[in-house]
Amino acid sequence: MKAPKSIYVCKECDYQSPKWLGRCPSCGEWNSFEEETYTSPVKASAAVSAITGVSGERAVPFRELDIPKYMRVPTGISEFDRVLGGGIVTGSAVLLAGAPGIGKSTLLMQLCGRLGDSSKILYVSGEESRSQLKLRAERLGVNPDKMYVQNEVLIENILKEYQSVSPDIIIIDSIQTLVCQSVASGAGSVTQVRECASRLIARAKSDGVSLIIVGHINKEGGIAGPKVLEHMVDAVLSFEGERSQAHRIVRAIKNRFGSTNEIGVFDMTGGGLISVDNPSAMLLEGRPEGVSGSCAACILEGTRPIIAEVQALVTPTSYPTPRRTADGIDYNRMCLILAVIEKRLGLRFSTYDVFLNVVGGMRIDDPSADAAIILALISSLKDIPVPMELIVMGEIGLAGEFRSVPSIDLRISEASRLGFSQIAVPDRQKSASYGVTGMRGIYDALRILAKSQQDSENKQ
Q1: Which ranges of 252-320 does DSSP label H, i.e. alpha helix?
Q2: pLDDT at residue number 71
Q3: Dist. CA 142–CA 112, nearest whole Å
Q4: How many CB atoms lie within 10 A of CB 5?
């Protein structure tokens, strides 16, 4: 028998090389090669059948294909169901990734508490002991009747116990701790993660069992392990949030059975995660009154309008090159907005440090928040507070014009529900209802602040 050889595998695209390379010739990533022990090549047909559960099928006409009827099982956790598209689909594989201590195991234990009385669940933990799981369950008030716990990292033993229990849902916490006897590399390696995941997914799809896999993230914030893992599963959920803050966000990165634009908002308490049905009120809580640099923005996450607070701090710099920091807003977008303000309004930020932040740890990718960012920046630069009852929406163009934003009626309705009496939108989308006014360009935003300052002086 030949001795195993060492090869180097790219953790992003699984490209294999006999020697270490600084840059992957396949995907172009730098420093992505990891050393692994090579035993025998995996045939392409075996890899395909491991993921899909079928092999050797002949081509059939497209008109003869049937649409399968997938059954969704609501979890009872409203925000989690929202992200999944209505519940867990039987026979699907879901990858839940997040930073350590963010609350992944807590969410899964609460999930077991909701489904453990009606569905048989096999909870496989490679990181925590049974006593630790029991302590968490007692803290959360969870005591499911049909939940089975297994402390195991060997995939062969897990699949053997799976046949004995015959669960409806199997939870793996986490995939980086599992090992396969036929693979000579260590736990968490590219080959181990790929092999263990493919076996679990193949078994779950062939038996119609829902599979939930917990994944770690690397220092760059991506999901640890091979990139092919994200392609193998049906849904990839990202658990986001700061451990120092109470709220958490579950975001769908990939979902074959639903939208990838939905998010779920939770509040971390001593009794576990609580679904937040009205995240706008939570994000606006504690908003300062009469302070410059703060403006409300209405963004759209899927079909849900959410009102967030954008804060800006513009202060004179003591460095030759001013600092630019953006938290929750794309850095390049901030630079573009600053350039438009300087060019179209003549307001100079070249001698000022600029700090942008979205309250609550939210990340805004919706360009409709451009108008709120502009008002917050000008407000901080001129030290003019933005009225508390004002909310603005609009995407800025390079010519300084405000472009239309989608689903404007939903945004206006949400802003009106939360008590915003002054709503400014792009001029083409203005309406007589709700007291909506139009903004043609960035000059109108400046007029709003000037009018606000005048009204404030008249009151004094």
Answers
A1: 279-284
A2: 84
A3: 8
A4: 11
pLDDT confidence of residue 39: 55
- Element holding 458 (H helix, E strand): helix 442-459
Q: What percent of the chain has pLDDT over 70?
A: 89
Banded model confidence at residue 149, pLDDT cuts 50, 70, 90: very high
Q: What is the pLDDT of residue 43?
A: 45
Distance CA 133, CA 61 (A): 50
286: left (phi over 0), alpha (psi -120 to 50) or beta: left
Q: Which residue, chain included where needed, has tokens 């929406």?
A: 393
CB 288 within 8 A of CB 324: no
Per the CB < 8 A criterion, the answer to whether 198 and 155 are in contact is no
For residue 428, with 0-12 CB atoms within 10 Å meaning exposed, 13-18 middle and 19 or more buried, which class applies?
A: exposed
* 332 confidence band (pLDDT: 50, 70, 90): very high
Report residue 276: phi and psi, to 5°. Answer: -105, 105
Residues 199, 47: Cα–Cα separation, whole Å: 10
pLDDT value at position 186? 76
